[in-house]
Amino acid sequence: MASILVLDDSASVRDAIRLALTGLGHVVREAANGVQGLALAGRSKFDLILTDLNMPEMDGLAFIQNIRQRADHNGVPIVFITTESSPGVMQQAKKAGATGWIVKPFSADQLRRVVDKVLA
What we know:
This protein is an alpha/beta fold. The chain has five helices and five strands. Helix 1 crosses helix 5 and helix 2 packs parallel to helix 3. InterPro entries: Bact_response_regulator, CheY-like_superfamily, Sig_transdc_resp-reg_receiver.
């Protein structure tokens, strides 16, 4: 299965995502912000990254812009997870390098479908 990095400043959101994805056999690593996410990506290669938009220290857009500059993670799919559903935010995410997005709140089934589609 896949190695997945999850970035979200909410521990409960990270827990829910981890439970849903480890139940499918994926290995999940967690970070509370973009700075921590970049540090983890510097030590491990991930097959998929799920990132929130609004986080302290480094938000999701800055994280995506930074990770896309690294050769080892340049082509890794990144799914933006956010409460924002405005077309402008989605356009910014896509321009930064996001592969897709899922709007909070979401169900475990919705998450699984998006992850399966992106990893296929």
